[in-house]
Amino acid sequence: MGAPTGHVTLYRAGSRARTETGWLDSRHSFSAGAHYDPANTHFGLLLLHNEDRLVPGRGYDEHPHRDTEILTWVLDGELEHRDSATGRTARVGPGGVQYLGAGSGVRHSEHATPAGGVRFVQMWVVPDEPGGDPRHLVCAAGAWARGDTVVLASGLGRHREETLLPLRQRAAALSVARLAPGSATVLPTAPFVHAFVARGVATLEDLTGDELGTGDAARLVDDGGRRVTAGPEGAEILVWEMHAALGW
């Protein structure tokens, strides 16, 4: 593999806008709600990337979505989801991932369980086409072991045999790297790669002295792939690979 050739921009955890209420502490990687920044509305196909903490028993009451592919990765606690498409309730715990394809329209709610709070990362990408039936799927923890790099959701053709969750976006995929201390993985080669350190500390190849801590992100453009190495306590990294962008 040749040396990385693209451009990397680091976004530190402390630079994210923050929404705080009595039940919510949300850190926004992009413009969200009252926090509008015309220079930071999206990256590639990624529209939203929030790290949320909810207090026990509280959360987002029923609200609508449409034409959005929504992935939620739970870090701590348990998230309870209810939606109008299936009429069922689903709970997602640490190391679990939830997919909601809003399609032509769906209403849902998300709350922490009464037993405790929850911390999760929620991410939105645009679908290939508008409309379609809403879809809701959950993969619980246990589908992979620490040290694995797993494709969680994808619309890329090459992932058809290994993807846990299908994504209605042919140019995007979400992976998680759960790295043991000192171990490494190689980020995908793509026009747009978004790597978010959900837990731990990591270093990126050719960025000497620029460690990525919990909540930090790297946005890579036209990159040839870089090795990312976990620090002494390991790391958990969410990686979006995108072969298109809004407006292409």
From TrEMBL:
Organism superkingdom: Bacteria
Residues in Fe2OG dioxygenase domain copies: 41-127
Stored SUPFAM superfamilies: RmlC-like cupins
Name under which the protein is recorded: Pirin family protein
Keyword Metal-binding: yes
Gene3D superfamilies: Jelly Rolls
Keyword Oxidoreductase: yes
Annotated family: Belongs to the pirin family.
UniProtKB keywords: Iron, Metal-binding, Oxidoreductase
